[in-house]
């Protein structure tokens, strides 16, 4: 078996790249339809949105930039579809979506997501059913200041029009006027800062979606019920698409995700095999 | 030729050029890397000026000077001279003699964010996390559920709280360095290390998942999507062949230089 160990040890890393790429690309082009199991944090996220009273105002913080698009944009779309869609009973939710971003590169993505779902799919009216406040520098300072006055922190929308022009902002002064906070975040500032500065101090209910890399950091907040639901990465987005019954790009990517994981697990196994096949002295 | 198609062509080329680094560092990769750094720097300068400096400082200050009104902020307009002065002081770092003046601005930044962080960690992490870990050893009803039927779900539900409690205590013991990790303390700390290893493994797994997701996003763009009537896979093939040709020529030239040097 030493020859096998020697062969595997000399394996060019580019062969590994190629195998992983092929394992991901093939199911992307020819989907296998592997089952998607909904996790409890995703289910809780869904239930949290379901629990929002009809006609309430929801803060949607879209704190990510282009690097987060593959994981978070499908998640953002799925969550918007849920919030703007009808209940199972057929009744309208009429939620008021107040979107914004604390990431400088976030507003164009927020604009695209809101236009795609709110405007084109559901025919909602800007300024009445939803609004995009754009970007504000200040991170935690913005979060803390919104407790005093949301209109003073965000005096105008993304295009510089005064908030007083928009009916959606009538009666929205501070966190007391908001039913729920939904945060789609790729890191700092994001879920952790919203929990620390807003949920823990002002008691606002919150659910969050994040990248796969960041998710383990936020599980303690989910376990302590500071975060009422958590979506992690593309998997979380696919789970949410399953929950709302819409097959989107996240669902399409899950076969590739699964085969990619299997191949990487195989290589980790091979790496360990090489280690144990080598004589003790040369390990 | 639509603007969308031009943008798609640029995206396809840049994506493949970055991927070419997987072969080795090469001129095509270097070109796109430099391009990215330049574009990103320009973009950030414009963004900071347009979305931060203009709406938060310059416009309200100018409005205040012209009209004497406070505008959108709830403070007198002249208070904006304070952040203006602090901002200008930051540039004193460029002068070796006056660099100490920048410390005033840094002190305000550090002080503000430290204050927010202390409040945030105290209310968000410290108290809530301690509270959420004071739980019964077995989750209420979990043993009764196990008694009614032994399934994977009921067994995991019984183990949920013990794993959390034992994991929390043993990891805390591992990070307690005032006692030597020997004997019983050493044994408990070792269990803590195992819990840490499992948590690192979970983090690594999530990192792999995230990286694969990013690749899926790019692969989907390169192979499955289309702009108008143009399938992206066609552009991908064209640029892949071109980039491979450039790298092959570069390799050939490099080997020739090596032979000449020898």
* Secondary structure: helix percent of chain B: over 70%
Strand content range of chain B: under 5%
- Count the DSSP helices of chain A: 11
Mean pLDDT of chain A: 93
Give the overall shape of chain B.
Answer: extended
H/E element order of chain A: HHHEHEHEHHEHEHEHH
Strand order of the largest sheet of chain B: 1-2
- Structural category of chain B is mainly alpha
Kindly report the oligomeric state of this protein.
heterodimer
Average pLDDT confidence of chain B is: 92
Question: Largest chain interface and its two residue counts?
Answer: A-B, 55 and 46 residues
What layout of secondary structure does this protein have?
The complex is a heterodimer of chains A (about 280) and B (about 260).
Chain A: H1 2-9, H2 13-29, H3 40-50, E1 57-63, H4 69-84, E2 96-101, H5 107-121, E3 130-135, H6 140-146, H7 150-153, E4 180-185, H8 191-202, E5 206-210, H9 215-223, E6 230-232, H10 233-244, H11 249-277
Parallel strand pairs in A: 1-2, 1-4, 2-3, 4-5, 5-6
Chain B: H1 3-19, H2 27-67, H3 81-90, H4 102-133, H5 142-148, H6 152-174, H7 183-224, E1 226-227, E2 230-231, H8 232-261
Antiparallel strand pairs in B: 1-2
Helix pairs in contact in B: 1-2, 1-8, 3-4, 5-6, 6-7, 7-8
Features:
heterodimer; A: 283 residues; alpha/beta; six-stranded parallel beta sheet; 11 helices; 6 strands; 12% strand; elongated; B: 262 residues; mainly alpha; two-stranded antiparallel sheet; 8 helices; 77% helix; extended
How would you explain this protein's 3D organization?
The complex is a heterodimer of chains A (283) and B (262). By secondary structure, chain A is α/β, with parallel strands linked by helices. Chain A is built from eleven helices and six strands. The model of chain A has no long low-confidence stretch (mean pLDDT 93). Chain B is extended. Helix content of chain B is 77%, strand content 2%. Chain B is mainly α and 262 residues long. The model of chain B has no long low-confidence stretch (mean pLDDT 92). In chain B, strands 1-2 form a two-stranded antiparallel sheet.
């Amino acid at each position: 078996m030493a020859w096998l160990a020697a062969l595997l040890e000399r394996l060019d890393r580019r062969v590994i790249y190629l195998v992983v790429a092929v394992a991901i690309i093939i199911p992307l082009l020819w989907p296998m339809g592997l089952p998607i199991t909904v996790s409890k944090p995703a289910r809780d996220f869904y239930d949290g949105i379901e629990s929002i009273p009809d006609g309430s105002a929801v803060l949607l913080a879209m704190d990510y930039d282009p690097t987060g698009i593959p994981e978070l944009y499908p998640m953002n779309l799925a969550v918007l579809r849920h919030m703007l869609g009808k209940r199972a009973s057929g009744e309208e939710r009429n939620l008021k979506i107040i979107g914004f971003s604390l990431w400088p590169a976030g507003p164009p993505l927020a604009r695209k997501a809101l236009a795609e779902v709110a405007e084109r799919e559901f025919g909602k009216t800007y300024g009445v059913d939803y609004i995009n406040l754009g970007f504000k520098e200040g991170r935690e300072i913005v979060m803390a200041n919104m407790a005093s006055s949301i209109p003073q922190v965000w005096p105008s929308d993304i295009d510089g029009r005064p908030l007083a022009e928009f009916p959606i902002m009538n009666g929205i002064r501070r966190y007391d006027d908001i039913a729920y906070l939904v945060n789609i975040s790729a890191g700092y500032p994001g879920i952790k800062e919203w929990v620390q500065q807003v949920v823990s101090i002002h008691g606002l209910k919150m659910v969050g979606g994040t990248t796969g890399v960041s998710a383990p950091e936020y599980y303690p907040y989910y376990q302590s019920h500071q975060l009422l639901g958590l979506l992690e990465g593309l998997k979380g987005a696919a789970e949410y698409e399953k929950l709302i019954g819409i097959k989107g790009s996240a669902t399409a990517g899950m076969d590739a995700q699964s085969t990619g994981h299997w191949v990487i697990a195989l290589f980790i196994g091979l790496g360990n095999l090489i280690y144990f096949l080598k004589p003790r002295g040369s390990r | 030729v639509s603007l969308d198609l031009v943008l798609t062509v640029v995206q396809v080329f840049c994506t493949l050029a970055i991927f070419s680094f997987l072969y080795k560092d090469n001129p095509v990769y270097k070109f796109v890397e430099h391009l990215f750094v330049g574009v990103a720097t320009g973009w950030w300068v414009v963004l900071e000026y347009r979305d931060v400096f203009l709406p938060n400082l310059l416009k309200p200050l100018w409005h205040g000077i012209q009209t004497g009104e406070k505008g959108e902020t709830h403070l007198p307009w002249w208070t904006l001279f304070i952040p203006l002065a602090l901002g200008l002081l930051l540039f004193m770092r460029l002068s070796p003699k006056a660099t100490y003046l920048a410390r005033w601005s840094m002190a305000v930044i550090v002080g503000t964010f430290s204050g927010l962080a202390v409040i945030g960690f105290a209310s968000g992490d410290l108290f809530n996390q301690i509270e959420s870990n004071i739980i019964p050893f077995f989750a209420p009803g979990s043993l009764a559920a196990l008694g009614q039927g032994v399934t994977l779900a009921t067994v995991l539900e019984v183990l949920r709280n013990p794993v959390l409690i034992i994991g929390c205590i043993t990891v805390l013991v591992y990070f307690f360095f005032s006692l030597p990790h020997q004997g019983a303390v050493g044994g408990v700390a070792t269990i803590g290390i195992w819990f840490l290893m499992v948590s690192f493994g979970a983090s690594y797994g999530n990192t792999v998942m995230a990286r694969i997701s990013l690749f899926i996003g790019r692969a989907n763009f390169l192979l499955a999507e289309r702009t108008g009537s143009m399938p992206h896979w066609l552009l991908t093939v064209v640029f892949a062949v071109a980039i491979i040709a450039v790298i092959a020529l570069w390799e050939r030239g490099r080997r020739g230089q090596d032979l000449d040097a020898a």
